[in-house]
User: What shape does this take?
Amino acid sequence: MEAGAGDILVVQAETPHKFKNVGPGSLDIACIHPSPRFIQEDLE
Assistant: This one.
């Protein structure tokens, strides 16, 4: 899935996903996790 400026993407819990900047500018993201702790496993 590809998103652009101002887009909001929502995925269900435990859905594997990653971020990749495909444009020339910087990639700024805000992640919202409804959990008291942030649990992350990096994908290749």
